[in-house]
Amino acid sequence: MKNKQISAPFNSLTAEYIQRRHQVHEVCRQFKRSPSKGNLARLKSLFSRTGDEVFIEAGFYCDYGDKISLGHRVYFNINCTLLDGGRIGIGDDCLIGPNVQILTINHALAPAERLKKTNFCSDIDIGNNVWIGAGAIILPGVNIGSGSVIGAGSVVSKDVAENCLYAGNPARKIRQL
Predict the structure, then answer these.
(1) Is the pTM of this model over 0.85?
(2) How far, in Å, CA of 101 to CA of 137, rounded?
(3) Is 107 one of the annotated active-site residues of the chain?
(4) What percent of the chain clears pLDDT 90, i.e. is strictly above it?
(5) Residues 22, 25, 72, 107: which is the catalytic one?
(6) Domains of the chain
(7) Is residue 102 scored above 90 in pLDDT?
(8) 84: DSSP letter
């Protein structure tokens, strides 16, 4: 697993960030309205890396795209959301269930600091041959080991060991696979 990277604070409400999100969200909206090969190709072109045989169902959303790296044979089911202010790395042969959220963005806990509208990002790495069940939420800074399964509806707030089943809120290890 990779080391956790926490970004320097940044303000996502600057004109540059707003413009980039607007452009990327428009590509996502076009793909949702018409999940054609052309719109899928436009969506994939946003990513820093897209392996072979990546399939994305309609309803996929991301903020920037350029920090998303997808391995070979990755499958995204409907209505997945990736908040990618930080890097999101997904290995080969991963199955991402419907309505999964992968979130790298965080905000200050202290109310006075939160008023500054500052964001922090923590990278997420997902190994090879991982299955993330429907409606799971992967929180900032999490690493998910290869061969693991995340149960439907789980909230993953801590690293997941390789070849294990994790489930619940918060997700915990159920058993070795």
Answers:
(1) yes
(2) 5
(3) yes
(4) 84
(5) 107
(6) 15-176 (2.160.10.10)
(7) yes
(8) -
